[in-house]
Amino acid sequence: MRLLLLLLPLLAACRYTFLPLDPGKPPPPERPFVVARLLPEGKEARLLLKVERLPRPGYLHLKWFREEALLQEKALFLEGPGAHEARFPLGSGYHRLVGLWEGRPLFQLDLGSPSLPDPEEVEDQGDGEEGQEGGDHHAPGHP
């Protein structure tokens, strides 16, 4: 009997080991999962879109840019997993396609190279004293 009383606290500590240790399958993420490719084809760019996971049906908004200028907007209604395609006009220069789901960016695809300033051209940044003449440029009464 004494032995049982001594073992009782140990047995009480083991009572939770009989519950299932597997918490089960976690819920799927609320964000869609897509695989997107942008291919140049002559004077057009072709978007190949494969939807792998979609939490609920909705619109995928596509915004097509050349440099910073918005050229075209399209919307694809997605109901579930599957393949989709869209085409956009392609000219010279840097192009960017942004996909928005529920107002938030989902992907960005680029074609071409962005026009960046030439690193060899060093602009005169000045020293903050442009247009001032003479040697003393401090305010009156300031050392």
TrEMBL record:
Region listing for Disordered, in residue ranges: 111-143
Taxonomic superkingdom: Bacteria
Stretches with biased composition (Acidic residues): 118-133
Basic and acidic residues bias spans: 134-143
Name of the featured protein: Uncharacterized protein
Native species: Thermus thermophilus (strain ATCC 27634 / DSM 579 / HB8)
